[in-house]
Write a structure and sequence with these properties.
The chain starts with a strand and ends with a helix. A hairpin with a 3-residue loop joins β5 (63-72) and β6. The chain has helices at 10-17, 21-37, 92-106; strands at 4-7, 46-50, 53-56, 59-60, 63-72, 76-84. It has three helices and six strands; from the N terminus they run βααβββββα.
Length: 108
Amino acid sequence: MPYEIEYFHRRVEAEIEGWPVGILADYARLAELLMEFGPDLKMPHSKAMGKGLFELRPSGREGIGRAMYCFVTGKHVVILHAFIKKTRKTSERDLKIARKRMKEVQNG
């Protein structure tokens, strides 16, 4: 597969691993699609959040998860932040965390 997924920190990976089984299974499927299609992955699987930030949109009977990510040099994807959605709209707090981490990743 052409794209490689990395995690900003082990805590982000652990957050995802702790998701309910249905959401986790859908995340695994979407992660494979992301590795295959990269920036060509679109709605309903992935959504652009602006300025190079994207969200992977897994769901299951238990609810909805979100994994915020960006692309870095070469064919690397970095999962910056992950959470289970509790409201209809992604919170500003979650967007701020992801954007701050994206700046760290892009500025080395």
